[in-house]
Amino acid sequence: KRPCGLWDDFSILVEQLIYFHDHALIIIVIILAVVTYIMIILIINDFNNRFKREIRLLNIILTRIQLTRTFSLSFSLSPKIEHFYIIHPSIHNSSNNIIIQCVRRAGS
């Protein structure tokens, strides 16, 4: 007998969860692409002019440190599908509740 609810791969809840996960990852990839593009432009523009680099050296270093932190944190904090399963309230209930949900769905 196949389980239902979050454990059913074809349920509406899991389908919506997968769509949300995909959209969240697309947004993160877009943000990372923009940040990478800005970092490349900063590197190219700042190293072309020797005097500009000497004047704003501290500002350049601090900016790159912040961009590097943002870049590395975005990968470590990217949403994972397992995290969404962990926070769903029906998983924290007893297994009897899952059986009752299966019986209700089978009866309707």
Automatic annotation (TrEMBL):
Transmembrane segments: 24-44
One Gene Ontology MF term: cytochrome-c oxidase activity
Catalytic activity: 4 Fe(II)-[cytochrome c] + O2 + 8 H(+)(in) = 4 Fe(III)-[cytochrome c] + 2 H2O + 4 H(+)(out)
Family: Belongs to the cytochrome c oxidase subunit 2 family.
GO biological process: electron transport chain
Key words of the record: Membrane, Transmembrane, Transmembrane helix
Protein name: Cytochrome c oxidase subunit 2
Cellular component per GO, a single term: membrane
Domain Cytochrome oxidase subunit II transmembrane region profile positions: 1-101
Membrane topology, record value: Multi-pass membrane protein
Keyword Acyltransferase attached: no
